[in-house]
Amino acid sequence: MNFKTYQHKGVFELENGKGIADLEIAYHTYGELNKEKNNVVWVCHALTANSDVFDWWKGLFGQTDFFNPKDFFIVCANIIGSPYGSSNPLSISKNTDLPYFLVFPQFSIRDMVNAHQILAQQLGIHNIDILIGGSLGGQQALEWAVMEPQKIKNLIVMATNAVHSPWGIAFNESQRLAIETDPSFFSNQINGGLKGLKTARSIALLSYRTASSYNKTQSEQDLNKVDNFRASSYQNYQGDKLVKRFNAYSYYYLTKAMDSHNLGRNRDSITDALNTIKANTLVIGIASDILFPPDEQQYIAKYIHNAEYHEIESLYGHDGFLLEIKQLNSIISNFIKATTLETDHKNLQIA
């Protein structure tokens, strides 16, 4: 495993015309690029994750898992705006020698992909064998497959969409409103907005899980309890957990970036954009996902040529793409084996 940071010299131009000076991109790599350079697995991570995919997607990525460093050269890069090593609102501005805070330029999913395309070039990666991501990571993967259709051989997206929904935007706006109620968010302090961030995380968690999961894991055994419920403690715990590892400014900007996701922007249409994807595509939905409902994944699969769609059952809603490892392993491994056999068959026919 290697953890490094790439610095892009000059100004990285954003989709909105603004720029980030000397953009930094933190990234992890695992394994080695083979001579044919056809063993690249590029992972696009979700909202509050980092570039260490072996840490947060265990069971799918690891030394003895399907995606392992013996067979693949695995790359996961930290997205713009995230506090795990890439340029973000708490980075130091050259103009002021102080953190950017709320003057950090707004960015989009497309900007994240543009940054990672630059990193791929620096790493000598000209083609990606498998591009994979869930949620916001899936949004990035779809954008990349549209932007560079010839370079992506296999595409795997899960619990994601082709355009962020009004429902998803409403959840994100509610979280930002919670952050804005914390006066310290506007005080230009490193720890600004943390109380608001805790509340925002509590709101988000309700969209990530399901009523059934709470009923199963947070039910009370004491029939006489009238306060200090397990569900209340759980919401507080999850809020505190994020506050210890994240910051309110990054969260604020990243939710706005998610809202910006629209494959049809400055293109003919969303369906036309999906039609341009040439990769062998696997789309996975989660039956109980209320944040990214399965019909959004079905829509993606419908308009990508020969895309394969699978739907998994999970008690945990949207978080199922991180937790239902056994189901994911089975679907993904079968998909990759089938596409490999198909490619081998075509090569034999050509020979």
TrEMBL record:
A UniProt-annotated Pfam family: Abhydrolase_1
Positions with a binding annotation for substrate: R201, D319
InterPro entries according to UniProt: AB_hydrolase_1, AB_hydrolase_fold, HAT_MetX-like
Physiological role: Transfers an acetyl group from acetyl-CoA to L-homoserine, forming acetyl-L-homoserine.
Catalytic activity of the protein: L-homoserine + acetyl-CoA = O-acetyl-L-homoserine + CoA
Family label: Belongs to the AB hydrolase superfamily. MetX family.
Organism of derivation: Pseudopedobacter beijingensis
UniProt-recorded name of the protein: Homoserine O-acetyltransferase
Subcellular location: Cytoplasm
Pathway field: Amino-acid biosynthesis; L-methionine biosynthesis via de novo pathway; O-acetyl-L-homoserine from L-homoserine: step 1/1
GO terms of molecular function: homoserine O-acetyltransferase activity
EC number(s) on file: 2.3.1.31
Main EC class the enzyme belongs to: transferase
Keyword entries, A-Z: Acyltransferase, Amino-acid biosynthesis, Cytoplasm, Methionine biosynthesis, Transferase
HAMAP family: MetX_acyltransf (MF_00296)
Subunit-structure text: Homodimer.
Gene: metX
Keyword Cytoplasm: yes
Domain AB hydrolase-1: 40-323
PANTHER family in UniProt: HOMOSERINE O-ACETYLTRANSFERASE
Active-site residues, as the UniProt record annotates them: S135, D289, H318
Chief location category: cytoplasm
